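Let's see one such:

===
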Amino acid sequence: MTPPSRPTQPAWQRALQGEQKAAYVRAMFGRIAERYDLMNRLMSLGRDQTWRRLAARMARVPPGGLVLDLATGTGDLGLAVLEVEPTARVVGVDFAMPMLLVGQRKLAGRQQRIAFAAADALRLPFPDDTFDAVLSAFLMRNVTDLHKGFAEQRRVVRPGGRVVCLEITMPEQPAFRRLFAWYFGRLVPWLGELVAGAPDAYTYLPESVRRFPSPPTLLRLMLAVGFRHVEYRQFALGTIAVHVGTK
């Protein structure tokens, strides 16, 4: 008698367990690239750009500074850096080519201080001590090795430079945590299917947030990597955290 076959796990579940995560994340962002900005505005009720500007201010980019925007996507964080420090130069890197193409098209003729390049956050193609600041928005949940990811950021930032990590996090207040879990776990996947045609991508998203380290745990990890003066601030009723560390 043939034993019953085990049901196949969805790709997003295998990605959360570490199986083929990088390949899944690259393909996922490629599929949603054209609707990525719109989904960000809808999910955050229009607040995501405000959070990027807060992260940019916390980077303390010096005049004329060279900035690395990791997992730049369509370039919104790089644009936020230039709003805060118009003389900065930004290199925006991503390993999902469709995202970079959308960003290049969006900024064509509008912004000459952002250069786009393809790169993996775990293997950055830059020499040590290259950038005055390194920033990321909604990246670190998606890397396969948090310690290595932060170590690479520390390697390429100059001594005294800042590394800034903007991420979604689960709120601590129990009632709001339940409400947020419902919104992110039920409504967001529905929006993802309706707007982007990718319910799996927006099912992966809330699950990746749920499994991501808490802000105090992430702070300890950054200290273990070798950052100094690590701190974090939370916004949006505890659903957004910005961590900052100095090399």
The chain is about 45% helix and 20% strand. Residues 20-171+213-246 form a domain with the Rossmann fold fold (CATH 3.40.50.150).
